[in-house]
Amino acid sequence: MSVLSERQQQLLTKAVDGELTDEEKVEWNELLRTDSALREEFAAQQSLKEVTMGFTLKKPPEETWDRYWAGVYARIERGLAWLLVSIGAGVVLAYAAYHAVVTLIADATMPGWVKLGIATLLLGVAVLVVSVFREKWFARKSDKYREVIR
Amino acid sequence: MDESDLSTETEWIRRCQSGDKEAFGLLVKRYMRQGYYAALSILGGHDDALDASQEAFAKAFRAIHTFDSGKRFYTWYYRILKNHCLNALRNKKRAPVAVSTLLEEAHNVPADEPSRDEMTEREQIRRAVWDALWNLDPEDRELLVAREMLGTSYAMLAELLECPIGTVMSRLYYARRKLRAHLEKERP
């Protein structure tokens, strides 16, 4: 069949769903009267609607709803727990890393090139951290979809 | 939703933004069914839908301070949920299995006991409709399920999909054509 105009698509959809206003009914009937391809498409979509309307999504067992909020609450709580665990682990790891580095640098027996390697490694990590945070910060400021939680 | 429902909701959100989890529980109870069915229409499985809709509520709670009180909570939550579901679909290593038993007859079966042949035919139609729905893009499936099986209005669909009502109708037109094409392909 020929491609329907946007107006025809909209009227056809409303006709199938029984949502036409009185004015639109007049316009629609006139279109149907003059266009056999449109009549055919309308009949096809109407019979499809009859089939799909015969089904619905199955309701889950009622206890799903009784336990639903408890499930959400547990997730909120676990999210907070993970945040605390991450912060705590970060602090402990940073403290351990600081002491390890201070001990290594203070060690007079350690060759200078190893100390230089440690300093370079730390500088690299610091630049990476700053770069990631800066990128996230700018993305957050300029992202027009920032409201959309992914 | 009428004015008093909306003002109650605004009050619940204000309480949530001050960290009141019980107020968030009231919001969850109001929208859990809608959220679950929306996730089901995209993901096609009970467990996945339950998991996604609950996780999206948890994400919404964490981000509640960013909620613009001029909007409806469900519209905002729905965007979080939809993104979560589409990510879940994308991240699944295997295609999720859509269970046709999640579809049931909308109306009561006639009082007369259906014959074995009639029951077989109904079962075949149910399976064919679900398979055809499952072969659509998630966006088309979500739209058709919302309109045909959950009776969502054009206005609400336009709000959820963030497009004009005319676009909703055009999208429904194309989605129905695609569904019909899939059903015809599967017809023996």
How would you summarize the topology of this molecule?
The complex is a heterodimer of chains A (150) and B (188).
Chain A: H1 6-17, H2 22-34, H3 36-53, E1 55-57, H4 62-106, H5 112-142
Helix pairs in contact in A: 1-2, 1-3
Chain B: H1 3-17, H2 21-43, H3 46-62, H4 73-91, E1 103-105, H5 116-134, H6 138-149, H7 154-161, H8 165-186
Helix pairs in contact in B: 1-2, 2-3, 2-4, 2-6, 3-4, 5-8, 6-8, 7-8
Distance linking N and C termini of chain B: 45 Å
Shape of chain B: elongated
- The count of DSSP E runs of length 2 or more, i.e. the number of strands of chain B, is 1
What portion of residues of chain A is helical?
Answer: over 70%
Q: Provide a count of the helices of chain B.
A: 8
Pair of chains with the largest interface and how many residues each contributes: A-B, 37 and 58 residues
- Hey, roughly how much beta strand do the residues of chain A contain? under 5%
Order of helices and strands of chain A: HHHEHH
Q: How much helix is in the residues of chain B? A: over 70%
Distance between the termini of chain A: 41 Å
* Main structural class of chain A: mainly alpha
Query: Largest sheet of chain A, described in full?
Result: none
Gyration radius of chain A, in Å? 33 Å
Into which percentage range does the β-strand content of chain B fall?
under 5%
Poorly predicted parts of chain B: none
Computed structural class of chain B: mainly alpha
Residue-averaged pLDDT of chain A? 87
Radius of gyration of chain B: 19 Å
Shape of chain A from CA axes?
elongated
Oligomer: heterodimer
Secondary structure tally: strands of chain A: 1
Question: Could you characterize the architecture of this molecule?
Answer:
The complex is a heterodimer of chains A (150) and B (188). Chain A contains five helices and one strand, in the order αααβαα. Chain A has 150 residues and is mainly α. In chain A, α1 (6-17) crosses α3. Chain A is elongated, with a radius of gyration of 33 Å. With 188 residues, chain B is an all-alpha fold. In chain B, 72% of the residues lie in helices and 2% in strands. Chain B has eight helices and one strand, in the order ααααβαααα. Chain B has helices spanning 3-17, 21-43, 46-62, 73-91, 116-134, 138-149, 154-161, 165-186, and one strand at residues 103-105. In chain B, α1 packs across α2 (21-43) and α3 (46-62) crosses α4 (73-91). The radius of gyration of chain B is 19 Å and the shape is elongated. At the A-B interface, α1, α3, β1 and α4 of A face α2, α3, α4, β1 and α5 of B. β1 of chain A pairs antiparallel with β1 (103-105) of chain B.
